[in-house]
Amino acid sequence: MRASLIQIAVNPDQSVNSRREYVGSLVREEAGADLVVLPELWPTGAFAYELFAQEAESLDGPTREAMAKAARDAGVWLHAGSIVERAADGTLYNTALVFSPDGELAATYRKIHRFGFDKGEAVMMGAGGEPVTVAHPGTTLGVTTCYDLRFPELYRTLVDQGAETLIVSAGWPERRRSHWTLLAQARAVENQCFVLAVGTAGTHAGVEQAGHSIAVDPWGEVLAEAGAGEEVLRVEFDPARVAATREQFPALKDRVLGLDAPSRLR
Q: Which CATH superfamily is 2-265 part of?
């Protein structure tokens, strides 16, 4: 299975519409991939809080339209990163969009863990309430966004729902890049899953981005890692290694503390 992680910079001098066109062209260049993944909030920038309300859109908005067409043109499964969604009641959410190769919206995920403590996303956006998995033909995807990476309970829930490949779409800052790599590997090891984590490059809203998108196997080995700049990280992996790893080292069956693993993991 081949995945393409598109690590882009969010240029504040570029309009959101121009960025949609640019990102759509990058997705089309990945025709032949089994999965393409984009970063978090790339239309606005994850730290451009002042743009959230201005650029918020419905699930039927311009980003969905552009990314559906890009997925259809390329014939790929596309995790289109996330948008600032404005719900019918006016609440804003950090919402990920996943498209099938025919351009249909296969899944959405409202980010559960909002970053910022007492400012930014944490106070401007509502929290999602439901973990989301997607039945990709090659592997079951667990969908997560940026700050979610720090909360292992979410990933355990995704594994219980059948996840084999964990997606992390992020806008992670450079000053905490060591945490990014460490946590991506930890989530892979503890859940015996592949982790595909893609972030942004450059600097936006005054925050230098970490870049360094990364693919990790179920043993915690780094399969590929990007640099700091714009880059498409292409990685090939065998989803069957998840079941093989869990059989070879069946740690998940020894879960205790009242967290009863499903019988299929035993």
A: Carbon-nitrogen hydrolase (3.60.110.10)
**Among the options 30, 85, 111, 193, which is catalytic?**
111
- Considering the entire predicted model, what is its pTM? 0.95
pLDDT tens digits, 12-35: 889 999 999 999 999 999 999 999
- Name the residue ranges covered by the structural domains of the chain: 2-265
DSSP 64: H
* 119 is known as an active-site residue: no
Quote the CA–CA distance of 150 and 48 in Å, as a whole number. Answer: 21
Catalytic option among 30, 55, 85, 146: 146
> Which single residue is written with the structure tokens 């992996």?
237
Q: Which of 132, 175, 182, 178 is nearest to 154 (CA)?
A: 132
Q: Is 193 a catalytic residue?
A: no
236 contacts: CB under 8 Å, gap ≥ 6: 1, 2, 3
Residue 40 appears among annotated catalytic residues: yes
